[in-house]
Amino acid sequence: MSVAHTPNPAVVEAGPPLADAVIDVRDLRMRYGDKDVLSGVDFQVRAGEVIALLGPNGAGKTTTIEILEGFRMRSAGRVSVLGVDPAKGDESWRARLGVVLQSWRDHGKWRVRELLQHFGTYYAPFSTDRVARPWPADDLIETVGLTEQAGQTINSLSGGQRRRLDVAIGIVGRPALLFLDEPTVGFDPQARREFHDLVHRLADIDETAILLTTHDLDEAEKLADRILILAGGRIIADGSADALSRRMSTEAEVKWSRGGEMFVHSTVDATAYVRKLFEQYGDEIGDLEVRRASLEDTYMELVRQFESGGGDALIREFEESGR
């Protein structure tokens, strides 16, 4: 990949990262010509966290990921990935990263087990006493749910099976950090659910940190421990889906039925309101539903506010909230 800008060496040093941070980004900036794509991005990711990076097209998501992966040189700022400046990452550092791209081409005549065994040979020299690399092919195949397809050629796999193989290739080296780009595009609902279970197993069992980009906000809400929203080259929100929803919506909508009639009420304290309903009507209450703002509602509102000229106020509110 071509390097669009050669930075001043004085701003390349990553600086000391947080003690438990897998990714530590401070004041990350990127400029192409006279255009600022990233204008001071700050965030951290810890071991075992699943982080979703969201943002409208052109927000700087791809640039941020490419800088973290060491494929693009930044203009300024401090970045540490697995304790190393990505601009200086060597082969042993890259062996600890996993990357699953949105699309990937290979030779369709390879068989699943053979392909994974082949890729595994690249990681074997980087085994340590703590982490045995690569992941044994048959164990990996079972983990991603391809046991029945282990002897099949790649061009015989379905789209969902092919995507599972993409993930297997990305994690064959047992990475400490995994990048996922639109991981479930083309999946049917069952395959998507199984993939989500796999992501959670990687984070919970191996403590793999996972940074994913997706346009599927429902998927981000189900998968991510934290959501980062990038707009205009800045992080304008960072928190769990619930925390972001509470930040943007002061009222919840309570729906219930009584005596065959439906009722709707908006309130800032849904818990207290529901308690009063049951104190007053008891078992007469039916079909109770409490709806708070979804991640999609929150995301759309944040982006709308930013694009309507409220970007500075959003960033100021975010910074003052202590993230």
Number of helices: 10
Q: Class of the domain at 9-96 and 176-244 and 296-320 in CATH? A: Alpha Beta
Coarse shape = globular
In N-to-C order, the SSE pattern is EEEHEHEHHHEHEHEEHEEHEH
Share in helix: 25-40%
Q: Would you give the CATH topology of the domain at 9-96 and 176-244 and 296-320?
A: Rossmann fold
Q: Structural class, from helix and strand content?
A: alpha/beta
- Note the main sheet: 6 strands, mixed
CATH superfamily placement of the domain at 9-96 and 176-244 and 296-320? P-loop containing nucleotide triphosphate hydrolases
Return the CATH architecture of the domain at 9-96 and 176-244 and 296-320.
3-Layer(aba) Sandwich
The side-by-side strand order for the widest beta sheet comes to 5-6-7-3-8-9
Strand % is 25-35%
Gyration radius from CA atoms, angstroms: 23 Å
Low-confidence runs (pLDDT<50, min 5 residues)?
1-16
Total number of beta strands: 12
Give the distance, in angstroms, between the N- and C-terminal Cα atoms: 34 Å
What would the average pLDDT be, to the nearest integer? 85
